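Ticket reopened. Same input as before:
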Amino acid sequence: APPRRAACSNGRTASDAACCVWFDVLDDIQENLFDNAECGEDVHEGSCDQSLRLTFHDAIGFSKNLTAHGQFGGGGADGSIMAFAQIETNFHANVGVDEIVETQRPFALKHNVAFGDFIQFAGAVGVSNCAGGPRLQFLAGRSNISQPSPDLLVPEPSDAADKIFARMEDAGFSIIDTVDLLASHTVAAQDKVDASIPGTPFDSTPSTFDAQFFVETLLNGTLFPGNGSNVGEVLSPLHGEFRLQSDFEIARDSRSACEWQSFITDHTKMVTKFESVMKRLATVGHNPNSLTDCSEVIPVPKAVTLPPPTLPAGQTLGDVQGACAATPFPRLSTAPGPATSVAPVPPS
Ligand code: HEM
Ligand SMILES: [Ca+2]
Ligand SMILES: [Mn+2]
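Engineering reply: fixed in the latest deploy. New output:
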């Protein structure tokens, strides 16, 4: 006999009754947080992208080293950044995160779900709205009791690759895992590194979960898109595009460069590896086996055929700073027409 399914509201069913509430949360946030399931452009200023960023800033508050030294190392993906927002959003690396925490909190309270669950759920739903995007696993059942994360666990864009890799390793993520996680920056923009140009994206296609980010980060940088060189910023190749120092370094580091470049010719690999590493990010500090799998609630991203990655108009292979010793940079074609400026992500 087929397994019995729990009846939820609106005639829907779930594999486990504990998943029913998440259908209600889904309806609510798609309409009221993500402006009817849009990727990257919403009423609440890019809440989709900010929600994805928040999954990281909550979860990365976890340190094996601190624990080994008898200190509290943080609870990982435990909702502490929402429960103790007045502490954690004041950490320097969390600048700007207070906005999405405050935007999300009323939804979690209304549906009476744990903050840690809500943050990971909203990130998964938000990114499922992006064309070409991943369908992330969602496990529910995290405790809503947490303690504030220690400071200095969230990587800064001004940190050297060595420092970022060490920090990520201390939270359970290898160098390759870190590259896989950075696929998130294909649907991302900055607001605070250069506050004079909020909404300046990291690639030319910030509402598409494509591989353009991995191409454009390897181009020779020639300009600052805003008010000059800020801490954590390096030269960008395109008007209207922002480059983080951390992305620049990780794209070129011999330990990470080949994984970085490999996504340019393999979108399926990029998405699959992101899905896989996000399973682990979402459960940092938890035993996944003690949570309930409610992945069925996460929408299936629209099936789209994305155009292959290209060199932006005006750029040639000579502008590429390929850094993978084992494999030459792929022979991409250049988008036609004159060089253009990348449009900002709509601001608050
Ligand atoms: C590994 C080191 C990382 C560093 C140094 C870093 C740094 C940054 C910085 C500085 C911003 C711009 C913030 C602002 O000015 O508003 C940003 C944006 C973003 N990051 Fe990261 N990040 C890292 C990893 C990640 C990971 C692992 C994820 C998710 C899995 C992520 C997701 C995002 C997203 C979605 C945005 C865009 C937010 C928006 O558009 O509002 N980042 N990141
Ligand atoms: Ca993109
Ligand atoms: Mn946390």
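The chain has a mean pLDDT of 95. Residues 251 and 260 are 6 Å apart (CA to CA). Please confirm and we'll close it.
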